[in-house]
Amino acid sequence: MKHTLGLIAAATVLAVGGGTAAWASGDDPPPGDTITDVSGDWRHGWTIEHYDGTVTYPPTIAEARAGCAALHHRVGRVRCRTRTRIWYRDLAATKLALDFARSR
After folding, report:
1. What's the pLDDT band for 27 if we cut at 50, 70, 90?
2. How many domains does the chain have?
3. Which listed residue, of 7, 59, 71, 93, carries a Cα 20 to 30 Å from 38's Cα?
4. How far from the centroid of its chain's Cα atoms is residue 51's Cα?
5. H or E segment at 38?
6. Whole-structure pTM over 0.85, yes or no?
7. 28 occurs within a structural domain
8. Where does the signal peptide begin and end (predicted)?
9. Range of the domain at 77
């Protein structure tokens, strides 16, 4: 899960920071794991599409919270819930950024 969070955070920075626009103007294609579309929401689940054609389906918020509840230590559960909340917040921000970039 840490690896996935890192990839999403990196792709978010690239998408919001104009990295995608720089790739669009050049001849070199972006890396395959670049996020090209995010759809869905935290209640019903997300769909994340990548430049190389792969699609990722993160769990719904209920499934993620259930996974956190399975942890044995309270501190671990709190960390897991916090990471999940931040991850879904960042997915929503990425979705908005991509929608905004497409509208221009």
Report:
1. confident
2. 1
3. 71
4. 14
5. strand 35-41
6. no
7. no
8. 1-24
9. 35-103
